Amino acid sequence: MTVEKVAKELGVNPRTVTGLRKGTEKGDWNTLINCSRFFNVPLEKLLVVEEEE
User: Following DSSP, what letter does each residue of 13-46 receive, concatenated?
Assistant: First the structure.
């Protein structure tokens, strides 16, 4: 699936999708909820913060 297709399905800019994927962008609540639904992943999985060592 392309970044463009995901962006279109989520109603966001492709740069937003790329930023979310890389972890350089956090996204707003609506985007996170839409990602959770689109990818069929619990919202909690999207909110996990990894600690740096």
Answer: -HHHHHHHHHTS----HHHHHHHHHHHT--HHHH
Q: What is the pLDDT of residues 7-51, one digit of tens each?
A: 999 999 999 999 988 989 888 899 999 999 999 999 988 887 666
CA–CA dist 7, 53 (Å, integer) = 32
- Give the max Cα distance, the chain: 36
Q: What letter would DSSP give residue 51?
A: P
Q: Is the pLDDT of residue 52 over 80?
A: no
* Coarse DSSP helix, strand, coil percentages of the chain, rounded to the nearest 5 percent: 60, 0, 40
